[in-house]
Amino acid sequence: MSSTQAEAAARESARRGPVGIGIIGTGMISNAYLDNLTRFPDVRVVALGDLNEALAAEKAGAYGVPFSGSPASVLANDEVEIVINLTIPVAHVPVALDAIAAGKHVWIEKPIGINREEAQALLAAADAAGLRVGVAPDTVLNPGIQTALRHLAAGVVGTPITARTMMRYSGPDLFHPNPAFLFARGGGPLLDMGPYYVTTLVSAFGPVSKVYATGSTAKPNRTVKLGPNAGQAFPVDVLTHVDALVTFESGANAQVTFSNDSPLAEMGTVEIIGADGMLLTPDPNHADGATRVARHPQEYSEKLEPNWEDYPEEGTVTGRGYGALDMARGIREGLPHVATGELALHVLDIMLAIEESAAAGEVVAIQSTVDPVPLVDHKRDPFAATLGA
Ligand SMILES: NC(=O)c1ccc[n+]([C@@H]2O[C@H](COP(=O)([O-])OP(=O)(O)OC[C@H]3O[C@@H](n4cnc5c(N)ncnc54)[C@H](O)[C@@H]3O)[C@@H](O)[C@H]2O)c1
Fold first, then answer.
1. Between the chain's N and C termini, which has fewer beta carbons within 10 Å?
2. Which pLDDT tens digit goes with each residue over 94-116?
3. Which domain holds residue 231?
4. Residue nearest atom 40 of ligand 1, based on CA coordinates
5. CB 287, CB 319: distance < 8 Å
6. Is residue 49 part of a domain?
7. In the chain, where do the E strands start and end?
8. What are the backbone angles phi and psi of residue 85, rounded to the nearest 5°?
9. Whose CA is nearest to atom 38 of ligand 1?
10. What is the CATH number of the domain that holds 46?
11. pTM above 0.90, yes or no
């Protein structure tokens, strides 16, 4: 720990009570955050900001947040200790850098940024200032995936050897009124949905060493389907179908598919095979769901049906905002948080390498690595007040 970080940690642990939160970016996903953050006693949402100040004011009214205004006004608010950055991917790092410059910790929606250099610069700036960066997805910290990871670590299927993930459907233009950013740099099925699946795989298998991928784009343009901009065409700047083979430092392998070109929907599939069976996690984009384990049939039958065992989720299901709560508690207690900027940078590095491999037709080595991802303490109640008054 550097002296700046030690001073910052000492300053933080001297503070008590709920941690002040300011949200920048009050679009579609902000409701899911506000639903939870306004109910966790260990945080207090004190300010909302957006380029669209009227939208921020509307959300502040709906959720009883005392202040709303411009992004700069959130950064100038002394009560804000963590900025939750729910802007679009191209703005993630610029807004986060502004937050760090204003002396705030920052939690960012996924992906951390749109290229490695800007994400590395952000982590360096935060480190120098003794401030924290936490990054979504935090659905992976919720009881669904955490229960799966706990059983995996306990050896329920033996050492994990290989995995398959599948995320394919028609695309987020089915439900998002402003979908253009989801098909621009920083979006696409890989960078938009990949963080849920790749973060789960890295949590289960450890860091990735190399990837080999293919990819394609079925349509050069798409059309807004709902909301005030319905009918407007927008360009598709990303791969909309990706298949990749991922090799972990451990020597294990995974096969992953991300597609917005499939009318057939298959979402949330994460299958992990060890010598003693296959573990199926619940959907990593959701907070809940049971873990299923399939064991080899003992004898031949027509259907080749495995023997199933179900493991119910353990812990309190919340949803988005749980990772920011984990970081807020960590700040007060001087303990690390789980969804770190370093983990998000490694996940971004893997996803960009998949894009690069698909373009070059070659294996791409991953330059970054990450420490083993700790499990979340599932006995800790998110709805308990644990930080004093
Ligand atoms: N919509 C979802 O279902 C969903 C789910 C999970 C994660 N996410 C992630 O959440 C983030 C936001 O997605 P969304 O769907 O809420 O998008 P959105 O377009 O509905 O909202 C984004 C908001 O950010 C504001 N904004 C953009 N640039 C800004 C800037 N520089 N400063 C301040 N405000 C700025 C916009 O005015 C807008 O109100 C994205 O990273 C997305 O990947 C979205």
1. C
2. 999 999 999 999 999 999 999 99
3. 140-311
4. 88
5. yes
6. yes
7. 19-24, 43-49, 68-69, 82-85, 105-108, 133-135, 160-168, 208-216, 221-223, 233-235, 241-248, 253-259, 266-274, 277-280, 291-295, 307-311, 364-365
8. -100, 100
9. 27
10. 3.40.50.720
11. yes
